[in-house]
Specification:
By secondary structure, this protein is an all-alpha fold. It has one domain. It is 76% helix and 0% strand. It is built from 4 helices and no strands. The radius of gyration is 22 Å and the shape is elongated. The chain starts with a helix and ends in a 20-residue tail after the last helix. The mean pLDDT is 79.
Length: 126
């Protein structure tokens, strides 16, 4: 089954690459491969700092479930890997996964917690 899926992916990649390559030319294809690989490497290099920052703080505050964060992290890794590999279809899928990971991590709305009570602390001066 896996070999059939790989053959279908390879066929789709070639069917998409031939018309696009003839439309943009050899230099365009070369530039696309280099730029997408650089973008993929940049995502991999800067990804840990993005997930150490606000997202982990939100997990510690229980505003963002760790399951949502792990899904966004996995989507970002797979998206970066697909960008590093040459190919138009893989680059398109990588960009979609990167966009989905950003939407998943940044636009997640936490459920409202009705158990929170507003408290004011007043320091006694005496």
């Amino acid at each position: 089954m896996k070999i059939i899926l790989f053959a279908l992916y390879l066929f789709a990649e070639i069917a998409l690459s031939v018309p696009l390559a003839s439309a943009i030319g050899v230099f365009g294809v070369f530039l696309e491969i280099i730029l997408s690989a650089i973008l993929g490497f940049l995502v991999v290099i800067y990804m840990p700092s993005a997930f150490r920052g606000d997202s982990l703080w939100l997990v510690m505050q229980k505003w963002l479930s760790s399951d949502v964060l792990s899904r966004a992290f996995i989507m970002r890794i797979i998206g970066a890997f697909l960008l590093i590999l040459p190919g138009f279809l893989g680059d398109a899928a990588g960009l979609v996964l990167l966009a989905a990971s950003i939407v998943t991590a940044k636009c997640y709305k936490p459920p409202l917690d009705d158990d929170i009570i507003d408290v004011e602390v007043v320091k006694d001066k005496g």
